[in-house]
Specification:
By secondary structure, the chain is an alpha+beta fold. The protein has 3 domains: 186 residues, no CATH class; 136 residues, Up-down Bundle (Methane Monooxygenase Hydroxylase, Chain G, domain 1), CATH 1.20.58; 65 residues, no CATH class. It has 9 helices and 9 strands. It is elongated. The chain starts with 13 loop residues before the first helix and ends with a helix.
Length: 433
């Protein structure tokens, strides 16, 4: 891209990052409007094929298909609009149809979508909901009382509020009806075109993210007995550690097995608990974006969701934190036990070294005693040899001194020679070591 200014070259990702703010922008919808929203949990293989499936729908209506690497797509077909988004662990389809019916949920937007194409969708449903925006001018009574709105929700207790700075009112019962869908009714008082699409998108996101946040709740309840069991087992081990007669090696084995079990639970469910926190934060943000004002006599959407969702999320947080705390406590106990085992081993080694030193000292003394005896024996045999030689010379009259005198006189010289020889041997051994 050329510029009129002599500035450096663009970063390779400049335009991609700059235009990211415009990604997944809201649609421009004419009001009133009906919408149907599906959120499906999909595996990696199913995600690969969903673009092909979406391309088949585009081909049927002669619309350009999404790019192979696209993660969101919107288009207008003959009688409906579609918005598709692919996320990390789920995908969403939202279908819009212009105009309102006499009964808000009698003919939802999903009826305009080809049945065979819908039947071929893969994945499992996380959220399925219908929403309708109706005009307040045509439904003034619904703005004044709740009795006219309740039949649209099978007379279930209503939840709702005035939203978007008073531009609309939203009603729901947060129940799945006989058609398998939940429902949102939006009464338009003064919604602009862009506001209507954004409001629908926020409501659908709240519904999806609150369900995704709750995916960790069954796991937390399932792990509670395991957590209690591990906590009791740690108490048993640490209590045994205080006993002087305990088997430290056995306790260390038990502690190692317990640490492995806890780390397995933590690593297996860490991502799910972290995702629950992230989704709950998104729910809170979307509720803030609604800018709710209470309608007398019913709960607001934020109050209803938080009163039921917050305890579940807190349970997940508590379970995750308790496992982390338990892991740290097991680590501390393992360190203490290893320290005690190391001290015992050091004492045993010290005793072993002392015993070896004592044996070496005894061996040295025995060796010195043997050396002394050896010197005497060698001197005796050497003197005997000298006497035998003297006697032979004396018998030949070559020597006129008594052999006994020669034998006795040679003893000191023999002792000195042997002593010098042993000293030399000790010196050689010392240099070798």
């Amino acid at each position: 891209m050329t510029t009129v200014y002599p500035i450096p070259e663009n970063h390779a990702q400049r335009f991609v990052l700059h235009n990211e703010v415009h990604a997944r922008s809201s649609l421009i919808l004419g009001l009133p409007v009906r919408a149907s929203h599906l959120a499906l949990s999909r595996s990696g293989e199913e995600k690969i094929h969903e673009r092909q499936h979406l391309s088949q729908l585009c081909e049927r209506f002669g619309v350009a298909a999404p790019a192979l690497d696209a993660d969101h797509f919107s288009a207008t077909f003959d009688s409906f609009q579609i918005r598709w988004e692919q996320h990390g662990e789920f995908s969403t389809y939202t279908f819009y149809v212009q105009g309102a019916e006499e009964k808000p949920f009698a003919s939802p937007a999903l009826k305009k979508v080809p049945v065979d194409w819908l039947a071929a969708l893969t994945g499992t449903i996380l959220v399925a909901t219908h929403a309708t925006i109706i005009s307040a001018s045509e439904n003034d009574d619904s703005m004044l009382g709740l009795t006219e709105i309740a039949p649209y929700f099978a007379n279930n207790p209503l939840v709702g509020s005035t939203v978007t700075g008073g531009a609309a009112c939203v009603f729901t019962d947060f129940r799945i009806h006989v058609d398998g869908f939940s429902r949102f009714l939006i009464v338009d008082k003064d919604l602009r075109v862009e506001q209507g699409a954004r409001l629908l998108h926020r409501l659908f996101e709240i519904e999806v993210y609150r369900v995704l946040a709750l995916l960790a709740f069954p796991i937390a309840r399932k792990l509670y007995p395991e957590l209690k069991k591990a906590d009791q087992q740690l108490y048993t081990i640490t209590n045994a550690m205080t006993q002087s007669a305990g088997n430290d090696a056995k306790l260390l084995d038990e502690l190692t097995m317990l640490a492995a079990e806890i780390e397995n639970h933590v690593s297996s469910n860490h991502l799910r608990f972290e995702a629950a926190n992230a989704y709950y934060n998104l729910v809170e943000q979307r509720l803030t974006d609604l800018r709710e004002v209470r309608i007398q006599g019913i709960q607001t959407i934020g109050e209803f969701i938080k009163r039921r969702l917050e305890p579940a999320v807190n349970t997940c947080r508590s379970t995750s934190n308790r496992f982390k705390s338990l892991s740290e406590r097991v680590g501390n106990a393992s360190q203490l036990l290893r320290t005690r085992v190391d001290i015992i081993i050091e004492r045993q080694n010290q005793g072993l070294l002392s015993s070896m030193a004592l044996r070496a000292k005894m061996q040295l003394r025995m060796q010195q005693m043997v050396e002394g005896i050896s010197i005497v024996a060698i001197t005796y045999y050497a003197a005997s040899l000298i006497r035998a030689m003297a006697e032979a010379l004396h018998a030949l009259n070559w020597l006129h001194i008594s052999p006994e005198i020669i034998e006795g006189a040679s003893v000191p010289f023999i002792l000195i020679g042997i002593g010098l020889g042993f000293k030399r041997i000790h010196h050689i051994i010392k240099n070798m070591s």
